[in-house]
Amino acid sequence: MKKIEAIIKPFKLDDVKDALNEMGLKGMTISEVKGYGRQKGHTEIYRGAEYVVDFIPKIKIEIVLPADQVDLVVNKIRAAANTDKIGDGKIFVLPVERVIRVRTGEENRDAV
Amino acid sequence: MKKIEAIIKPFKLDDVKDALNEMGLKGMTISEVKGYGRQKGHTEIYRGAEYVVDFIPKIKIEIVLPADQVDLVVNKIRAAANTDKIGDGKIFVLPVERVIRVRTGEENRDAV
Amino acid sequence: MKKIEAIIKPFKLDDVKDALNEMGLKGMTISEVKGYGRQKGHTEIYRGAEYVVDFIPKIKIEIVLPADQVDLVVNKIRAAANTDKIGDGKIFVLPVERVIRVRTGEENRDAV
Amino acid sequence: MELNTGDTAFMLIATALVMFMTPGLALFYGGLVRSKNVLATIMQSFLCLGIVSLIWVVYGYSLAFGPDVGNVIGNLDFVFLNNVSWETGAGRTIPDILFCAFQLMFAIITPALITGAFAERMKFPAYLLFVAAWVSLVYFPVCHWVWGGGWLADLGALDFAGGTVIHINSGAAALVCAIVIGRRRGYGRDAIHPNNLPMTVLGAAILWIGWFGFNAGSALTAGPIAALALMTTQLAAGVGALGWVLAEWKIQGRPTTLGAASGAVAGLVAITPGCGFVTPVWAVVIGGVAGVLCYLGIILKTRIGYDDALDVVAVHGLGGLWGALATGVFASVGAKGLLYGNPHQLTVQAIGAGAAIVYSVVVTFVILKVIDAIVGLRVDSEGEQQGLDVVEHSEVGYSI
Amino acid sequence: MELNTGDTAFMLIATALVMFMTPGLALFYGGLVRSKNVLATIMQSFLCLGIVSLIWVVYGYSLAFGPDVGNVIGNLDFVFLNNVSWETGAGRTIPDILFCAFQLMFAIITPALITGAFAERMKFPAYLLFVAAWVSLVYFPVCHWVWGGGWLADLGALDFAGGTVIHINSGAAALVCAIVIGRRRGYGRDAIHPNNLPMTVLGAAILWIGWFGFNAGSALTAGPIAALALMTTQLAAGVGALGWVLAEWKIQGRPTTLGAASGAVAGLVAITPGCGFVTPVWAVVIGGVAGVLCYLGIILKTRIGYDDALDVVAVHGLGGLWGALATGVFASVGAKGLLYGNPHQLTVQAIGAGAAIVYSVVVTFVILKVIDAIVGLRVDSEGEQQGLDVVEHSEVGYSI
Amino acid sequence: MELNTGDTAFMLIATALVMFMTPGLALFYGGLVRSKNVLATIMQSFLCLGIVSLIWVVYGYSLAFGPDVGNVIGNLDFVFLNNVSWETGAGRTIPDILFCAFQLMFAIITPALITGAFAERMKFPAYLLFVAAWVSLVYFPVCHWVWGGGWLADLGALDFAGGTVIHINSGAAALVCAIVIGRRRGYGRDAIHPNNLPMTVLGAAILWIGWFGFNAGSALTAGPIAALALMTTQLAAGVGALGWVLAEWKIQGRPTTLGAASGAVAGLVAITPGCGFVTPVWAVVIGGVAGVLCYLGIILKTRIGYDDALDVVAVHGLGGLWGALATGVFASVGAKGLLYGNPHQLTVQAIGAGAAIVYSVVVTFVILKVIDAIVGLRVDSEGEQQGLDVVEHSEVGYSI
Ligand SMILES: Nc1ncnc2c1ncn2[C@@H]1O[C@H](COP(=O)(O)OP(=O)(O)O)[C@@H](O)[C@H]1O
Ligand SMILES: Nc1ncnc2c1ncn2[C@@H]1O[C@H](COP(=O)(O)OP(=O)(O)O)[C@@H](O)[C@H]1O
Ligand SMILES: Nc1ncnc2c1ncn2[C@@H]1O[C@H](COP(=O)(O)OP(=O)(O)O)[C@@H](O)[C@H]1O
After folding, report:
1. What is the pLDDT of residues E270-304, one digit of tens each?
2. How far, in Å, from the CA of B24 to the mean position of ligand 2?
3. Using a 6 Å CB cutoff, which residues line ligand 3?
4. Bridging pattern class, strands B2-8 and B90-95
5. Which CATH class is domain F5-393?
């Protein structure tokens, strides 16, 4: 089993979700994160003082899935999340040793 | 060393924490995430328009621990988080290569 | 490729960021998490009732990078995040199999 | 009597201020629940502005202030506000319709106060029925007894601005509600924390300014007694806040912001019946004691174990009772209490309070049982888990 | 006439209350947008307090209330408030400067209302120009027609507190704004959720109390008519909230908190023109119908598909129109409507409403086109994505 | 004099409005700090309502307004409000107790203003002692000098509603506080961002409406001067907001919402001493200049480097000073300033301001040093890190 972690722009979440849905992938976990990278942040002003805010809101998507689906899903995510602008994000693939569904105790392929 | 990532229902957090505490496991990191899966979301209404909200609040628990404790902990989590309803969540086990305690520099088994 | 996950005290974020910046490492993703460990939480009072809050705000930093930079970065983070007090946090190193930049499709070393 | 523009100006604004208290209460209560119930809790106060306004026009004002029937209730002469003029009537220097509007605001906030007891678990239809039934069967009669020419007025009970009619009455009903509907899921085990304490402080501030309209406005004229009532109200509120904060500092080791806000409300409740009858120095005492007493009432509640979610019993019930009795002790302006040689007054105050409590407890109990039989009082366990906002209103409070 | 301290006291406070409505509106609107636009939205209401105050002193009051020129506009006798005394003038018992201040508050809130239509996408400089131009070219003339001795006053149009001048006028302008500026990015596809509904309820509460100053204050004296207006205002607001909530419960299966707040505002809008002319029972009808009608107006909007972001058209336009016509039907105090034997009044009301709509639509359209040509109306797509707070103001609303 | 119901009605409500300012300030300040200090900051304003109310009854009113002793302080005739009647006294048409209540509200907000200077780091016990000592040793004397028949009154200093007594006085004290307590940890390095700017705008709105009670109420009668003061207050606030926004747009390239709210407060501060003495056009000038000036004061602070956390010095100190001098220049109603042929007035204003500054600086310094010796002024570094809410009050502001 593998885990895909994708860091994307927040407004692309719906597109990515729809793309994955279409290919029948119906499970994922998302969280709000902040990214630091090449994409420039914005300036904030507070009573005469200015601050540059480097950390930019991003969405992290986590999907655990059988290894044979990784390529397909990575491509789908890339296609949906891409805007050709700096800051579109990254996809990481990590190994997963075991997957268990809490409710049934099913494992691995059956659990996702 | 291994890392357990468990996605559970928020109101089960205290039960899981207590169960792990009992067995002497005293370190973990949690975060608020949103899950998408078989469990149905709810409807929101805004001035005449209806939206289905698919993303459901979940808690993600991360525990890094020696490999030999994985089975025990996975079982404890399952037992405590299970409500026999769809959406109870998943447990993932990932390999970890190194663990360091910031304060002391201790590594691996000594660091958790 | 490897992934470093560091759990640190929130007010140390700027120091860590600056330290990594200096060594030329310019990409990371952070999130707000809550930690449970040896560090004691605080007490909250609500109309005569007292609760101990065990979960303490922490920042999780995630950095994906080539394996050969891991040691250096781990040391930098330790040096910057250390206050010699309980609760300074942990650093975990995990294996990563693939890294893809969404925008360009570049992989691994080129993608971070 | 002839219309006086000063009195009318004062009462117009006082009425507006008392209206403002109900959304103030909505925010006060809304800040104290978990964020999954913030809107449902706000709704349960806010919608009283609609339900009670409608009933008031149809028959409420008439039952409360219509010509007396047997010393217990008004007749139906004023249904649909027939015969309520916008000219001044007998014995008042303000238009009748303005008195009617002023009193409406009191009728609105009283059931809203009770909703704190059953917060975070009541079904919305049950809530609607409860407010309509309770205001009709409990509030209008008790209001008539005290202010509409009923038997408590005849007895000589002192209630300047509604200690008995509003606070003891709603506090007693709240106790019944808390017990009948039962504890919130996880009560006593899970930490049930306020979602937004700054909002609660804001609510307290709105209640405070509104209470000037409530208490000083109850003089119905812009004269010395209104001025006295405003001063005593301010002092009791301020010193109530201090009292609560110092008590919890002493007992729990920490002075809290919620304690300051709660203590101010406790002081306001306690001064309500006596605000126009006592001197400023006694207002300090009444407020200070209220702050400590209501705090202790909450500690006691935790020991006993009923789940009065937002502490209506301790703050309004206990605070109102203390205020009613204190009026019988300290009154010296326009009436005399125990300390000024009239122990009888204290007895009368106790009778008034006792009557309101007994009546309110019994009728509230019956109302709840009937509603439970018709639509059910409580959302199911899963709904309570998810929160009333999503389950009952399909909304969420914040997306910040 | 001689100064009356009661009337003056009342109008001083009424003026303060109407001022309070504009920040109330800022919070009402601010709670409804996404959190990335909360400050920009608040700013667009709040800054009207500055822009319009300045213009009012320079020439605004003079155009609206200066000696009449050709039945359509005031002359320049009052520029820089020359010749505006702090003593009482002819026909009023309050200082002239107080009347001027009271009217200023109306001029402030009217353009602020419109900003709801173009929320979440208007450029800040365009907003500034729009408010200055609109208040000068649309508000002052229409205000003069109705209240400054212009042709609608001569015709006998009834508008107690500004149904035509303020609500129909701003509602019509809002429709043009929504269409000219176009839909928000993602409108109809993405879920665009309110960021803070408790804040919206707070805003509604502030509007409500402010509206007592607005409506009752329009009597300009603390007498029977002010009292009547206060009562009808309360009833229409309360029953408006009920009406909306019941309608959506019936149609969508859920009663919402936002519905209660919106319904209260709808009721307040609808009673505005008739608050001093109708009896309480008709106020219940006007408010209840407004709640249902404005809700249906929003459903209709969704069908038609223009993006009036915060529903100014449905609530103020439609609600104001219903109120203006209802005044022509139900008026019985100081004037007679259709139901009381005077069908002519309904015609006059329709003419007044129609004139305001046509004038407002045309001039608003021209203003928008000119501003678009000069500075552009709309932020670019990327800026809209990021949110106006960061892009236009370099601020974020919350760091909680 | 005989009681006038119009004047009394006005002052009752004005008093209520001034009370409302202190929780308004709590929210204004509360929104500006980091969320870990939101409650402690609110508490430091809110609890002044308790502390000062209590002291006022015991000896405060007597020191400030009791029969004069040597032109510098009142005697003890009014302790426990003895001899303060609810009938009208000499020279006023409202009850004495109402005047006493109105003045109480001023005494409450003045120390609350100062708390902005030491926000996010003061110990709670030190705060309590500070407020009690400062109001006793600084506020009551200075208040007596100007309004209680002291030497500044004799000199002919103009201070309609408290520019010197309240704003210059608290601004000077704030400067001392900021310097003595020292900078916040991380000041100048870490970004210290507001947690809730909508709440700050709400606070500004409450301050604004309260200020009508504050300024117009200082006329003590519902007549032409109150009306003038209300108008000048509105104009200065509105144009102050505009002025600040335009200045920062010019200098920093962005107009901010916080700038609008701050500018409104700056305008309100600056018009306070002159609101009943200047004409509307000068109010526009006073407010507009205040907006720009106070903004520049903040830029200057950043350069100098003391940490006046919420900018009390720049807004209240500088704004108040400008207002006091401007009154000496532009006064024309009931008194004459430089521009109207009386340069002497400007000298008197400068003396008044100077005296207040010197006295406030010296006594505040001594008070702080004494408190520091007794309980310590500042929480330890770890506590500051964790935030005052948890450390001092065992609470958290939000669980959203
Ligand atoms: N080395 C890294 N490790 C973890 N996350 C990273 C890393 N580099 C970038 N990111 C994440 O990816 C996001 C986008 O990266 P950025 O450099 O801005 O642009 P791009 O995606 O076009 O390369 C960042 O905001 C951050 O969240
Ligand atoms: N493939 C997956 N990858 C990551 N997280 C998943 C995946 N599938 C489900 N989840 C997480 O598990 C939660 C529960 O899944 P769901 O399908 O609703 O029910 P069940 O746990 O009973 O299988 C989801 O809300 C989501 O957070
Ligand atoms: N076994 C673990 N797995 C995951 N996270 C852990 C684990 N143990 C500790 N942590 C995280 O590290 C933080 C610090 O741990 P703690 O035991 O308080 O002190 P120290 O870092 O000094 O060992 C915790 O708050 C938690 O977030």
Report:
1. 999 999 999 999 999 999 999 999 999 999 999 99
2. 28
3. B 27-29, 62-65, 101-103, 112; C 7, 35-39, 56, 58, 86-90
4. antiparallel
5. mainly alpha
